[in-house]
Amino acid sequence: MATLVEEDHEMLMKEMSEEDLQDQMDEMEVLQSIYENDIVINKESSLKSFHMNIKVEVDEDKGIEAEFYNSNLSTEKIAGPFTLKHLIPMKLHVSFPYNYPSEAKPNFSLQCDWLSYTSMKKICIQLDEIWQGDGMVVIFEWIDWIKNDMMDFLEIKKLNIGKEESLSRQNDNNNNNNNNDTNKKSSSLADLREKRLQFFAKNGDIDRRAIPGWCLNASKNENFKHLSYLPKVEQLMGNLLQYNNYVEHKLFMQKTHTCKICWSEEPATKYVFLQACNHYYCKECVVEHLRLHIKEGSVEKLICPDPKCATPIIPSQIAELVSKDDFARWEKVLLQKTLDSMQDIVYCPRPNCNSPVIEESDNLAQCPKCMYAFCSLCRLSWHPGTICMTAEERIKAMEARAKRSGGGIDMAEFIRKQTEFINEQKTRMTLKKNNCKECPSCKNYIEKTEGCNKMHCRCGVYFCFLCGEDITQVGYGHFGEGKRCQLFSIEAIKRWNALMGGQDVRQERMWRVQAMGINIHTAQRKGCPYCGQEVIKEGKNNHMNCFACRKHFCFLCGLPVRKGDKHFGPGKPCKQHS
Fold this sequence. Notes:
By secondary structure, the protein is an alpha+beta fold. The chain has 16 helices and 23 strands. Among the domains are: 6-173 and 191-235, Ubiquitin Conjugating Enzyme (Roll); 253-340, Herpes Virus-1; 504-578, no CATH class.
């Protein structure tokens, strides 16, 4: 059906009192002056009408949590919780009847995708109650209530978006299990509208003002042809997060901030937002942070500088902040480290190739670029059934080959390449003799000067200096009594005792335990969570001190006890004395 015709409007305008007309004009003028950027006046309608966006306030510090549910299939949660400090504004559509405010309240409808129909219906009822019918204008009071008091009125502590509709649909499915043949038929547009009407009518009579897209002037008998598209939960989740980030960034750009790296105070235009975690630092510090690790090759450390975050910086942002040469080096080093971390990848030994090759069975590797088949152990031509030469044998063979080589430009280049390889092998042999071990990941040699046998390479891998095994996952659990490798060598312990004035810490501990009348063979023991060394409990004190690594831990739960931790005490799970 059509809306009210222009003739009806003209007749109503004649019946409108001058006082109502003046009140409406004054209210519109006030609303425009207060909400000039959020209100849109409909100038084409003979009756005064407008629509506006109302920003619903939430706690600025804590925000509000939002969880998202699959509204199509079940009550399964698909994402969340997310903390939102800014919500997409609610839309209020208003038109003034001719006898407002003397006799009638304004006509209105609401639209808010992140609130359920039940909540929207409650809001409409509350707006009706705010209207006193005493001839006073009410729009500003409505807006203020929606903005500041609506969330408390609805008692919303967490947004469960899509949950109400999913429950309704789940109940419908349970009630219609016997109508499988009917459900399999494709639904027409009219059927879909009817189902949607049935959904909105679950909790009583339909309140059209709470239904998104309802036209204010539509006839009561009209079958909701003006219903707007309700976004899917996934799309709504993206809209909410995007809007929240947009407002946060807009507010951020209006202030000055202190960089947590250099502690200088700069305007927001000189800061960089790390997109993966939303932490921010001044651009100079972030660029220097990226360039330093790219130059050193430690690309795995291109993470948020916040010690509690460690979220990787996304590649697109790295490309924006560093030069093209630095970004190209980052890509090259990252690819190299990725290939090096793959245990079945070797490199073609031919000087002009050096392509990555996947190792096959029997140590066979065939380069896909130059088709050279070689042994993945010695890098020489593949020799099935023959033992590889040692490094010393390879050097002697290559030196002899270099001496037999004749002249010519190409041959001179070959001799240069071979000489470089021989020198590299000699250097590796020298390092190996000088207390250096090869990292099992990047193959760089690391020298041990002092300390324990747990080595840390700059590529990020931890390995055992004694056996060369990668212990990144097991850590100190690789060492300990009864294990193949010990954390400290006998020589290191002797040097430590000499530095301590000749005092044997372990022996001194044993003597003290025996002096207390404790049998060291039956005494209570606990492995140190740091180094694995077993430590004897002295008396009733559960605060243990490892004599091997000098670290503290709890005898009851085995967890580390650090300085300042309140691990023991009233209300704590562990007692210091038991």
